[in-house]
Amino acid sequence: MVRIEGLTESSAFEILNSEISDSLKQFLNTPKELSKEQINFYHNNGYVKIENVVEENYLTELRRIIEAAVFIRKGKDERDLKQKSQYEQSFLQCGYLCLDFPAVKEIVFAKRFAGIVRDLMQAEHIRLWHDQALFKEPGGRITDAHQDCSYWPIHEPQFTSTMWLALVDVPVEKGCLYFYPKTNDPNLREYVDIFKNPHQPEFLKNEEKVFVPLNAGDATFHSGLTFHGAGQNKTNQMREAMTVIYIKDGVTFDSSDERNKTHTSCIGLQEGEIINTKYTPILI
User: Looking at residue 141, what DSSP letter applies?
Assistant: First the structure.
């Protein structure tokens, strides 16, 4: 059974139907300046850790909003962890929360976060691809190594980026992300089906993976090409993370894979068309 301390269905709806504070709203639109070293690290390695993406003063409110949304989506699931599929044991996945909850939309549409991605990708404009909360229950299994772009119908995966925001401290033992540096190479494409039949690509077997523990409010940003995964949650506490995926304005729809023709963010598009739907607005 999914439990989040201090939340009931009524209190969660109250949080999600309330206006966020003016101070959080202002903060979400306050730019965060990056160094050249951070930008270069991202391009060279396919990921980067950035501290204090959400500052401590704003984290409690932001975290509670995401927790409330996850509770509404998952709180009625009464199964124990061992009763769930292998994939479900990896994390509680809640996508497109911003479509259902206005308070979450304020977070997902934040110019602070999109501005970081714009600077990392050195793009003129950034669009939303979609959001998803990824909570890992106590005892939750590993998240198998994979490339995000394997699941996305986008011709230019090098112009995609995911923010993985820690809402609580996420040390190695709680299931932080790990990355395979320098795998953000379009020539290293391989589909890993983490839903049904995960495997490890041969070229990763001799590569070193780098674990990236985070303090609450820190985030990693990684390219859709970069191979990554997460460890097991060996603690008795929920690992809480919110992700937002971004695309560079101008990327195009790839309809070549049957799996991805019905992707929500690309509904109505034809092969090769610029991705510009109601689900993918320009954020900055």
Answer: -
Whole-structure pTM over 0.90, yes or no? yes
Q: Is the pLDDT of residue 1 over 70?
A: no
Q: Is 35 exposed, middle or buried (0-12, 13-18, 19+ CB in 10 A)?
A: exposed
Residue 161 · residue 46 · CB < 8 Å: no
* 8 Å CB contact between 75 and 135: no
Q: Letter for the amino acid at 234?
A: K
Beta bridge partners of 245: 130, 162
| Among the listed residues 184, 161, 152, the one whose alpha carbon sits nearest the alpha carbon of residue 246 | 161
Other residues' Cβ atoms within 10 Å of the Cβ of residue 45: 18
Residue 283 has pLDDT above 90, yes or no: yes
Q: What is the mean pLDDT of residues 105-124?
A: 98
Residue 175 banded pLDDT, cuts 50, 70, 90: very high
Rg of the Cα atoms in the chain: 18
Cα–Cα nearest to 129, from 160, 99, 156, 102: 160
